[in-house]
Amino acid sequence: MENIIELDNVTKRFGGITALNKASLKVTRGEVVGLIGDNGAGKSTLIKTLVGVYSPDEGDILIRGKKVNAWNALKARESGIETVFQDRALTPQQSIVKNIFMGKELRYPFGFIKEKEQIFEANRLIREIGFTSKLINAESPVGNLSGGERQGVAIARAIYNKAELIVLDEPTNNLSLNETQKVFDFVLNVKKSNRSVLFIGHNIYHVYDISDRFVILDRGEVVHQLNKNDVSTPEELMKIMRETIKAH
Amino acid sequence: MSKNNSYLSNYFHRNGRALGSIGYFVLLMVIFLIGAPEAWIRPNLHQSVFVMMPTLIFLTIPLVFLVASGEIDLSFASTYAVAAYIFALLVKNGVDPAICLVLGIFTGAAIGALVGTLIVVFRLSSLVASLGVLFLLRGVILLLSNSRSITIMEVENHWIYPLLVGNFYGFPMQIFWAAIFVIFCYYFFNKHVFGIHIQHVGDNSVSAEQMGINVNAVKIKAFMFVGVGAAIGGIFTTMITYTFFPTQGFGYLLLALAAVFVGGTPYWGGLGTIIGAVFGVGIIAYMEIGIIAIGWSGEWRQFFNGLIILLALLGHRLHGERVR
Questions:
Q1: Which end is more exposed in chain B, N or C (fewer Cβ atoms within 10 Å of the end residue's Cβ)?
Q2: What is the DSSP secondary structure assignment for residue B269, as one 8-state letter?
Q3: pLDDT at site A212
Q4: A141 and B323: CB-CB below 8 Å?
Q5: Number of structural domains found in chain B
Q6: H or E element that contains B315
Q7: Domain annotation covers residue B227
Q8: B208 contacts in A (CB within 8 Å)?
Q9: Helix (H, G, I), strand (E, B) or coil at B23
Q10: Is the separation of the CB atoms in B197 and B44 below 8 Å?
Q11: Which residues of A touch B3 (CB under 8 A)?
Q12: Taking the CA of residue B220 as centre, how many other CA atoms within 13 Å lie in the half-sphere pointing to its CB?
């Protein structure tokens, strides 16, 4: 299977603190990878390095087998990686349409924006995501939306860009059951279209349900990787995680 | 019904602040008209406003971009003089004024780039750092020019003079250039990647960065644009008066800033209005000239400028808090 992205012995330091220590991770096409670990295990740093918000101090990042230099968020997005960040990465005073196309606007020559096309697409996406309120359209400001709806905007962005890898950082935090189910449906749809998902979550039941493979992170190191077949229940996964961390 | 409501509320979200400043402008006109109808009807009142407005527009509109990006700049009032000095000095030394104009504008952009880089790279407070640059550059100008002004009557014989600041059927040419500048900026702010990125960066720079927008580059470009606007304003004024004088531009510092905020651009970043700023400039310019024209004493000017800034802030509050 083709590797969409590969982190090879990546180290990231902040001042004297090593947040990631020779971490290696790959995501292949069509799989859902669950990243788990305690608070402070380095999940967030790993994700932000993977999607180019941080650039690694040591180690390589390979996209479809090819090493990439000067890794950054724009390059990640151009390589087909979209991220739904924990904080949703929205600008609340701006409209939904501006948020969906943030950083990847549809452009005419000389950088002018195809506004009508963007609004049309945004309205389509809003319906696809299932925004129920008639008061909301593409030009409504994001600040007027609920937490679940904001998550919907962040996901709409990933859907529109037809990313090959979608990184979901704590996507079910603060969501209702109904909204959580929507996120799960979304992940399954992505998988069905032979694209990949990297799923980060506190809730081990959510991660267990949705993932094909699990990566356990502890104190900045990838300490264990296992397939769904290796475990039979979320409780067992939890137990393995605790034991691995204790032994580390 | 609900659909109409949402369009209406979105319309007000987008345009409410500009409408507010238009409202203040209309109110001001009504007060002047009632207060001194005979002065208001005389064309020379409006002519003086039209002479002042273009300069203020070149200074104010780029500031809208910068304030929307979440930064502020005070140094533009000195950049204005530096660009004018370079222009006047080179013209005086026989360089073609068209080339001097380009070099002057380039100087403005370069100063903006330096100020922006300083603030962004070292994470300085833009208010304090640009205050420092304001004084520093003014000092440089005073030292270089020996506090002497430069007169450049010769610029009148060059083709750029009638083109830029000449007279067109009784209207000063700079009005047309200012109008073109406003139209350009309107599209640049609302329909161009540069303006849209500025709004994202000023709204939430972390989100913008996560989405691959180069936050620092966007902010530095906004500072450069302010420098360019200041340079254009300074050079135009120098051409109109045929004189560079070393204290020039200082008087515009507070007026241009007032015009930004009176014009409906909130101070917290992420939002801005070009149309509102034009009316903000109109309010400030009429205030500066109108109060005297209607026969009140000049002391009232500062009083009313202060009052209108406070009213504008209250207007922001009525329009709504910053959403997060």
A1: N
A2: S
A3: 94
A4: yes
A5: 1
A6: helix B299-319
A7: yes
A8: 91, 102-103
A9: helix
A10: no
A11: 134
A12: 14
Is B70 part of any domain? yes
Q: Is residue B27 part of a domain?
A: no
CB < 8 Å to B14, chain A: 139
Any idea what the Cα angle at residue A144 is, between residues B64 and A87, rounded to 5°? 85
A1-80+164-248: CATH topology: Rossmann fold (3.40.50)
Q: How confident is the model at residue B1 (pLDDT cuts 50, 70, 90)?
A: very low
pLDDT at B2: 45
pTM: 0.92
Separation in Å, CA of A32 to nearest CA in chain B: 22
Q: Do B323 and A139 touch (CB under 8 A)?
A: no
In a domain, residue B296? The reply is yes
pLDDT, tens digit, 9 for 90 and up, residues A48-88: 999 999 999 999 999 999 999 999 999 999 999 999 998 89
Domain region containing B75: 42-317
| Contact: A95, B187; criterion CB under 8 Å | no
Contacts of B200 in chain A (CB under 8 A): 91, 94, 98, 102-103
Nearest chain B Cα distance for residue A232, angstroms:
36
Chain B residues with CB-CB distance to A87 below 8 A: 206-207
Angle between helices B274-293 and B252-262 (to 10 degrees): 120
Contact indicator for B250, B77 with CB cutoff of 8 Å: yes
What is the tens place of the pLDDT at every residue in B169-194? 878 899 999 999 999 999 999 999 99
Closest CB to A140 among B10, B214, B322: B10
**Interface of chain B against chain A, CB under 8 Å?**
2-3, 5-7, 9-10, 13-14, 187, 191-194, 196-197, 199-200, 203-204, 206-214, 270-271, 322-324
What does the H/E/C string look like for chain A?
A: CCEEEEEEEEEEEECCEEEEEEEEEEEECCCEEEEECCCCCCHHHHHHHHCCCCCCCEEEEEECCEECCCCCHHHHHHCCEEEECCCCCCCCCCEHHHHHCCCCCCECHHHEECHHHHHHHHHHHHHHHCCCCCCCCCCCEHHHCCHHHHHHHHHHHHHHCCCCEEEEECCCCCCCHHHHHHHHHHHHHHHHCCCEEEEECCCHHHHHHHCCEEEEEECCEEEEEEEHHHCCCHHHHHHHHHHHHHHC
Residues in chain A closer than 8 A to B209 (CB atoms): 53, 73
Q: In this complex, do A89 and B192 lie within 8 Å of one another by their Cβ atoms?
A: no
The CATH number of the domain holding residue B223 is: 1.10.3470
- A and B: number of Cβ contacts within 8 A: 105
Q: What is the least distance, in Å, from the CA of A173 to any CA of chain B?
A: 18
pLDDT cut 90: percent of chain A above it: 65
Nearest to B192 among A87, A112, A140 (CB): A112
**Cβ contact B249:B78 at 8 Å:** yes
The alpha-carbon gap from B201 to the nearest alpha carbon of chain A, in Å, equals 8
